[in-house]
Amino acid sequence: MSNEKYYEPRQNANVPAAKQLQPPGGPVYDIEHGETPAMPDDSCGARTDEKPVTNPQRLLLAGAFAIAFFFQLYAFGAESDVGFMARYASFWAAYIVVFHLLCRDKVKKAPMAAPFAVTAVLLCCAAVAQAYIDDQMRWINVVILPCILMFHAQLVANPLPAGRESGYLALFFYGFFVQPFKYIGKFFNAAGSLFRKDGRMVWLGVLIAVPVAGMVLALLSSADAVVSSMLGRLFSDSRLQRLFFRLLVLFVFAVLFYSFLYGAKWGRREAAPTRTIVLWPAIAPRVVLGALIAIYAFFTAIQFVYLFGGRGLPDDLTYAAYAREGFSQLIWVAAINLAVFAACLCRVREDAIMRGMLVALLAATGVILASAFTRLGLYIGAYGLTFKRVQAFWMLGYISMIIALCCVRLFKSKLPLLRASAFILLGWYLVLNGFNAFAITGGLYGLYGL
Q1: Of 28, 212, 228, 400, which one's alpha carbon is 20 to 30 angstroms from that of 310?
Q2: Domain range for 353
Q3: Together in a domain, 426 and 310
Q4: Are residues 72 and 253 in contact, defined by beta-carbon separation less than 8 angstroms?
Q5: Phi, psi of 280 (to 5 degrees)
């Protein structure tokens, strides 16, 4: 008979048997009498609390590979302008289709995302048309299209409450630099679920064997000249190299898009942190606004005398040079004024004095924009109209609409200024894409006697 003593917990009638006190080291089992601990299902120690892979997650594999297939067509296709933009538009169109099929339930709950999706679809069409029209606009669309789609994805996957839209800027960078890598493991989980356990082990062996075999071949080719020559002839075939890189790009981008789309559909949403807005004392902002308004009063007087009033410039200055030198600086001044307006609106308690000073600031900004419009007209009259100058008119028009929105916001506090500005930018950008640069340039030349 063994002399080993076993711990017997003291029974308590007031505590259920399942919750009786256990010894510090855990429950003790009398193995001699057949008491054995329950073993997990997987004797290899695998995690049993991991959620099983669902059918939509398996279907997402096909969607990710479809997007990656169109991407490799775009990346390795011919370099003609029209074909390049057609493949680029097809690639993003495939992404839009897969995203909306996957996240259709979330899309219905995010009405703000609809304008972004419509704009992206129209830009896919415009991207092909711009290949015939304007090379500069074509490359602008290449950059703008993924940015619009990223904002669209974050609006759907991570909706923020009204007044917190500035948080989408952080989500924008998160979507590009974190989300495509965060759920890479889910891709391999979904791919492994397509096979039995033995099949998974086979694929695991393949994944391990490929880099090991590559390293061994490299060492053998260094050790034996004949092997090196044979491998050199084998991998010198350009078609084989091209096929290898295509398959590599296809696989890598399928993994990245799977991770991104998995995060959009099933990723955990972090609760929006609460924040406390600390209002600034009104004295310092009033001093800043007063100094700016005084400077703009002096500037306005000069503009009404020389630019708007038609009084001649100094002898050594032409109107064309006067316009060219000041246009870009005025755009920057208008941007600074809008930033000051936004800071005062968010951080300073609004009263009658502050509202009056902000109205004066917006009025001064309007004079600055009128000066910029006039200067641009003088410059076009001297040097002609180009599509780049059409873009300058477009920028001035957008800033003018933002100033109008700011005026409305001063008297309508519930106006979502940032959201409205984003929607106007989308629509105004589509207007810019609708221009046929050559037709507009030729049609407006007559206005300036050219």
Answers
A1: 400
A2: 283-448
A3: yes
A4: yes
A5: -80, 150
